[in-house]
Amino acid sequence: MPRFVYQAISREGRAVRGEIEADSEYAARRQLLAQGLVPSALAPAHAPRAEAASRSQRMRLSRRDWTVFLQGFAALIAAGEPVAEALAALAEQEERARLRRFLQALHQRILEGQGLGQALAELGAPSEISRMIAAGEETGELVAVAEQLAEGLARRERLRAEAKAKLSYPLIVMLFGALVLVLMLVYVVPNVVRVFAHAHAELPWLTRAVIAASEAVKAYGLWGLAGMAAAGAGLRALLRRPRWRERSHRLLLRAPVIGRLVWGLEAARFCRTFGMLLAGGVEMLGALHIAAQSLSLVPLRRIAEAAREAVREGKALAPVLAPMLPPLAARMVRIGEASGRLDALLLKAAEHLEQETGLRLNRFVQLIEPMTVVLIAVGVGILAAAILLPLVQMSTLVR
User: Fold this and answer.
1) Mean of the pLDDT values across residues 221-248?
2) What is the 3-class SS of 189-201, one letter each residue?
3) Which CATH fold would you assign to the domain 258-345?
4) CB of 304 within 8 A of CB of 321?
5) Cα angle at 277 between 122 and 159, to 5 degrees?
6) What's the rounded Cα separation, in Å, for the pair 63 and 73?
7) Which CATH number fits domain 63-154: 3.40.50.1260, 3.30.1220.10, 1.20.81.30, 3.40.50.960?
8) pLDDT, tens only, 257-274
9) Are 250 and 274 a contacting pair, CB within 8 Å?
């Protein structure tokens, strides 16, 4: 009997690998589903194992692609369109080749009789999407689950886009100011030095310091850039190690201003993902596992995984999650757990955290913008003073 290697997701949300005997690939899928495993990759045992591992990665979509797909899909099935026809319509109108190929492959699997959640998992969908869609199919609430997923992903993408847009302006101003200062040091200061050299006059200390900086930039500027690039590459390699990555994440969370911003974004993401999964019908342990994996920072992910283990042992959820959530969100989790409305209160907590983080980000940008302008003005002012002081001194001597 043929053997197949597989990767699957268990009911608890764990990734499982193994081999299974079955008459066909379709029969292997049915056996895995009967065991409570949702296959994410399946291939004949004689094929390279890398094929099973990479099959779900060949059509990996961006966050924006997932948001666009789910918004369109939710709108069509809410209007009464069958799943297969909705996918065909989305594929026909999609202009981006990658998303169109994904929709065509998904449509083909639905025509072959696969469930939508299973097909999404095999095509590499994030666990939160495939598990929620599968739960929606089982409970008959696919329309509501798809709409909730689309809204949640759209909110998350909007918050991320706003953060990038607000922080990009100060960054561009800083880079432009640094470029202006370097150009002045490399091209303007040397020309002025030639004029002063012919005068044989003693230069002010500020002018001498700027000239020394100009000569250093011209002599060692490229070496400095190469050194910074090497240091950046070394730091990136170091942060790939789990221990150093966790240390860097802890430092980031303790950083003034930035730490609270990042903490708020991560807590909002966790609450929204966890709340959406529970509302979509995913069991508590699986929802906790997927929500923990959605976190970017290792210390917070460890707390979420510890909460999952505590729930598995029959303990209360709120006390374990409290260290990773702001006080109000932790209180809402405790109330939701006690009242049986955990999903609704998690989503409310996520909305509150998103609003609070947005306001905090606005205040940070309002603070950093004038500071950036002041720093650039100080730099240009020092260069201007270094050039003008000798001119004033020479004019005084002439008189």
Assistant:
1) 87
2) HHHHHHHHHHHCC
3) Receptor-associated Protein (1.20.81)
4) yes
5) 95
6) 15
7) 1.20.81.30
8) 888 889 998 999 899 889
9) no
CA distances from 46 to 3, 78, 123, 297 (A): 8, 43, 21, 38
- The values of phi and psi at residue 326, to 5°, are -60, 155
Q: What is the model's pTM?
A: 0.70
With 0-12 / 13-18 / 19 or more C-beta atoms within 10 angstroms meaning exposed / middle / buried, residue 20 is buried
**pLDDT of residue 6 exceeding 70:** yes
Q: How many CA atoms lie within 13 A of 172 on its CB side?
A: 6
Is 63-154's fold the same as 258-345's? yes
Which residues lie closer than 8 Å to 18 by C-beta, 6 or more apart?
Answer: 5, 6
Label residue 340 left, alpha or beta by phi (over 0 means left) and psi (-120 to 50 means alpha): left
Position 137 scores a pLDDT of 82
Q: Specify the fold of 3-57.
A: Ubiquitin-like (UB roll) (3.10.20)
Q: Phi then psi for 8, rounded to 5 degrees? A: -150, 170
Q: Which of 199, 153, 212, 198 is nearest to 386 (CA)?
A: 212
Average pLDDT over residues 343-370: 88
Instruction: Enter the tokens of residue 323.
Output: 């260290």
The C-alpha atoms of residue 20 and residue 32 are separated, in whole angstroms, by 8
Task: Collapse the DSSP code of 125 into the 3-class scheme (helix H, G, I; strand E, B; otherwise coil) and give the result.
Answer: coil
* Tokens of residue 325, six digits: 């959530």
SS3 38: strand
Q: Which string of b and e fits 110-135 if b means at least 16 CB within 10 Å?
A: beeebbbbbbbbbbbbbbbbbbbbbb
All structural domains of the chain with their residue ranges: 3-57, 63-154, 258-345
- Given the structure tokens 């990038």, which residue do they identify? 164
**Mean pLDDT of all residues in 46-55:** 44
Q: Which of the two residues, 59 and 175, has the higher pLDDT score? A: 175
Residue type, 177: G
Given a cut of 80, whether residue 278 has pLDDT beyond it is yes
Across residues 117-131, what is the average pLDDT? 84
pLDDT tens digits along 309-333: 988 888 888 899 999 999 999 999 9
CB hemisphere CA count around 363 (13 angstroms): 10
